Amino acid sequence: MSDPNPYAGDPHAWGPPQKPVNPPTVADGQAYGYPAYGYPQATPDPAAQPGYDYQAGPPMLPGQGYPGPQGMMPMGGGPVLSFGDITVTNDSVVTPSGTMPLKGAVWTATDMSRTEEKIPTVGIVLAIVFAVFCLIGLLFLLMKEKRTTGFIQITVTSAGRHHSTMIPALGPETFQMVMAQINTARSMSV
To answer: Alpha helix (H) ranges present in 11-104?
Structure first.
């Protein structure tokens, strides 16, 4: 407790002593095309500044403003297909482990789901209750309930990279829907 306080000189200075920071020097108070923060800057002449004119709109390039050919997809555009965390664009496959080229990609799908069929508890109770009155109650045993559990595994391999994802199976038709999308991705990979 007998050591002097090293920070007693300036009550607002915390931490170890630091070198003074010099602000960046930029011509005309501009930083990356935007006015520097601080005191208000003089408004530059809009005719001398290249850029966007709010009355005239953006500068036009030759051929700009006319609709392009119909039916053409932009290269590298937005997502075309998506399988869990795998996204397919026009020229690449985007996964959490990195982007792979779409051309030459190998797609596989494995059905790891199962569909169980059982008699629900309500059917068994009704069969017992109505079996006492007449044998018609045995028809309640014909009630069936289907339940699908499990996942569908999708794997893509391209350019030495490999990624796999799991999609939950919501019904017996889920694998057919995923295979239709996989076949679309396979046709785009050729």
So the answer is: none
Euclidean distance between CA atoms 175 and 166, whole angstroms:
12
Rounded Cα distance, 27 and 56, in Å: 28
pLDDT in tens, 76-122: 568 888 988 999 998 899 999 889 999 999 999 999 999 999 999 99
What is the rounded CA–CA span in Å between residue 86 and residue 96?
8
Q: How confident is the model at residue 157 (pLDDT cuts 50, 70, 90)?
A: very high
Query: DSSP assignment, residue 53?
Result: B
Reported pTM: 0.53
The structure tokens 């920070």 sit at: 7
Q: HEC states along 108-150? A: EEEEEEEEEEECCHHHHHHHHHHHHHCHHHHHHHHCCEEEEEE
3-class DSSP state for residue 92?
strand
Tokens of 123: 């059917």
Write out the two tokens for 116.
């169980």
Residue 41 has pLDDT above 70, yes or no: no
- Dist CA 182 CA 153 (whole Å): 11
Q: Which amino acid is at 97?
A: S
